[in-house]
Amino acid sequence: MMATGINNLLEEIVESEEKAAQDERAHTNIMVVDDEPIMRNLLTDVLQNEGYHVHNFSQAEDALKNVIDDKVAIIITDIKMKGMDGMELLKRVKEINHAIDVVVMTGYASVNTAVESMKLGAVDYLTKPLNIDQIRLIVNKTVERRFLKKRANESAFYKKMSQVDGLTELFNHRFFQRLLDIEIARANREKWPVSLIILDIDNFKVLNDKNGHPVGDLALKKISWLLKQNFRDCDFVCRYGGEEFAVIIPNADKALAKKMAGRIRKIVEKAEFEHEETLPQGTFTISLGIAEYPVDAQSKAELIEKADQALYQAKSKGKNRVVVYNRQMKSLHLKQ
């Protein structure tokens, strides 16, 4: 009975959040910036049908002048435009108001272009030719996230539940569990995947034992910063415990998660950490395991278990690598 009551409460919370997020659309101003009239009109029509207030501009310079006056929440901008391009607009907007979410559009479907825009603060991207369902999904997801952030700031209940880890300033293990519940429930409703990355610092105990806990704490803080800087705003980076971290990646299959994991693995390996030369491998590295819901798992517990199994494989195969869960893996216990 207790488990049923908790599940019912969780479902009520998720449904309440979903309804409130939908109501938020009526109060959300979106700016569309594209020098192609067909694209501007398509985006405007789709978003207005979704209930948003939409203003569109053909030039980034004109859009920038109206950012403050229009109380814009979200900007959707093409990257390649005459005059000021979308990347420059993104930089300028973030200087004016970092809270404005910017979604970029690219006709190149280029991962490098998307990554560069994310580094500058873009929350997500669309690829041309535009797909109506993709437009709705990306924008509605952005509004939902804005709403959750707003609730986290305004509600005493959410403030308590969204406590962060004191050392790393990442979401703590307790909130990680709640976030994963919510994202799996949302994945079921939206019929999209959610991927989980669990990563572990290689030979962290050696670093601590040889150099002391203050050095280990500095390493934990730095890797936490690297994780926050190099995942999307819509991803949830958490301290799972000790030297382990978890990243929840909504609306992403494990192929995309693998690319993201591979990228952060290389970034960490190239970064400089204090006293990393004392590690057996001579440099600071991480191992990462990935699993996807619902392909690999049918529940939260199972998803965590599968990601853990993949991490174990990464460790056993020599560390400093990414392993994606597959059904041929044996059930192995990570904790000894």
Summarize the structure.
This protein is of the alpha/beta class and 336 residues long. Helices cover 51% and strands 17% of the residues.
Describe the fold and architecture:
With 336 residues, this protein is α/β, with parallel strands linked by helices. It folds into 2 domains: 13-150, Response regulator (Rossmann fold), CATH 3.40.50; 173-324, Reverse transcriptase/Diguanylate cyclase domain (Alpha-Beta Plaits). It contains 12 helices and 10 strands. The strands form 2 sheets. Strands 2-1-3-4-5 form a 5-stranded parallel β-sheet, with helices on both faces. A 5-stranded mixed β-sheet has the order 7-8-6-9-10, sandwiched between helices. Helix 5 (111-119) links the parallel strand 4 and strand 5 (124-127). The longest helix is centred in the first third of the chain and has 23 residues, at 2-24. It is globular and about 60 Å long.
> Helical residue percent?
40-55%
Query: How much of the sequence is in beta strands?
Result: 15-25%
What is the radius of gyration? 21 Å
State the major sheet.
Answer: 5 strands, parallel
| Number of domain modules | 2
Strands, count? 10
Mean of residue pLDDT values? 86
Within CATH, the superfamily of the largest domain carries the name Reverse transcriptase/Diguanylate cyclase domain
Overall 3D geometry? globular
Number of helices: 12
- Tell me the span between the first and last alpha carbons: 33 Å
CATH architecture classification name of the largest domain: 2-Layer Sandwich
What is the spatial order of strands in the main beta sheet?
A: 2-1-3-4-5
CATH class (first level) name of the largest domain: Alpha Beta
Stretches where pLDDT is under 50 for at least 5 consecutive residues are: 331-336
Q: What fold name goes in the CATH topology slot of the largest domain?
A: Alpha-Beta Plaits
Could you say which structural class the secondary elements and strand pairing correspond to? alpha/beta
Order of helices and strands: HEHEHEHEHEHHHEHHEEHEHE
